[in-house]
Amino acid sequence: MSETIDKQLSDGLKLKEIYIHEKTGDDGSGDGSEAKPLKTLLEAMRRAGDEPFPTFYSDSKEEDNKWVVVSASQIKKIKKIWIREKHKTDGKQHKEAEDDERRLKNLEESKNIVIKEDPSLPKAVEVKIRDTVPHRNQRVT
Fold first, then answer.
1. Which residues pair with 55 in a beta bridge?
2. What pLDDT digit, counting tens, does each position of 94-120 carry?
3. How much is the pLDDT for 15?
4. Helix, strand, coil % in the chain, rounded to nearest 5
5. Handedness of CA 68, 73, 75, 81 (dihedral sign)
6. Where do the Asparagine--tRNA ligase N-terminal domain residues begin and end (predicted)?
7. Three-class SS of residue 20?
8. Rg (alpha carbons) of the chain, rounded to whole number
9. What is the Cα 29 distance to its own chain's centre?
10. CATH number of 1-70
């Protein structure tokens, strides 16, 4: 069942309904189906992806109904948190993309740098570290 839902989400199709149960739901392994509900409305919004959201069903406090539609006021309250979180992640992704672009540009520029010895200076003498004392104030390698 969860494979079907994951496939639908990966194909760009939206779920028609997502189920939330505060006691038995699990945000980690739940898929939002009636059999495997999610624990929080915020996670349900994350899984839905973007607006318009599907219908959210929550566990009912009454015994005759198992599921009831989540109230508009609760959706509005959690939607504010979801929007703030979405802005943060969008900003972070934008910044990471700029950093990657800048890093690639710097890498390309660094490939053009050629290091060569200055011919106007005396040639460097190759010495071992233990023999550096007599070669002070000289160019050594």
1. 17
2. 999 999 999 999 999 999 998 888 888
3. 61
4. 45, 10, 45
5. negative
6. 33-122
7. strand
8. 31
9. 19
10. 3.30.1910.20
Q: Could you give the 3-state DSSP secondary structure of residue 68?
A: strand
What gap in Å lies between CA 42 and CA 85, rounded to an integer? 10
Tokens standing for 60? Answer: 């009912």
The pTM of the full predicted model, rounded to 2 decimals, is 0.53
Helix (H) or strand (E) holding 58, with range, is strand 55-59
Give me the phi and psi of 25, to 5 degrees please.
-75, 160
What are the CA-CA distances from residue 86 to residues 11, 35, 79, 117, 121 (Å)?
21, 28, 10, 53, 59
CB atoms within 10 A of CB 130: 6
Closest CA to 11 of 57, 52, 49: 49
How many residues would you count in the chain? Answer: 141
Asked if the bond preceding 52 is cis, omega within 30° of 0, the reply is yes
Please give the structure tokens belonging to residue 117: 């010895």
